[in-house]
Structure formats: structure tokens, C-alpha cells
Write a structure and sequence with these properties.
Layout (H helix, E strand, L loop, with lengths): L9 H13 L3 H8 L8
């Protein structure tokens, strides 16, 4: 789904799926954040 050059673990994928499921528009922001360290709550 997301074409990124970074490797994300399954836990992160679940968070992304949960976030994008509620708001597809956040995908663009998530892609930008993938280039930086992310702290999940």
C-alpha cells in the first residue's frame, strides 16, 4: 500500500492500518513521518 524505502515492523503496520482506516487523508502525512523516528502512543 505504502511505497516507502524504510522497513516497518508488524506493530507499526497495525498502527498505520488503524489510522488510515479512520482517515485515509492521513496517509500522506504518515508517509512523510516514516522518514523520521515515530513514537506511538
Amino acid at each position: 500500500m505504502l511505497n516507502c524505502k524504510v522497513i516497518i515492523n508488524e506493530v507499526t503496520v497495525k498502527h498505520l492500518n488503524a489510522m488510515t482506516f479512520n482517515n485515509k487523508k492521513k496517509v500522506d502525512n504518515i508517509v512523510l513521518l516514516l522518514d523520521k523516528p515515530i513514537m506511538w502512543k
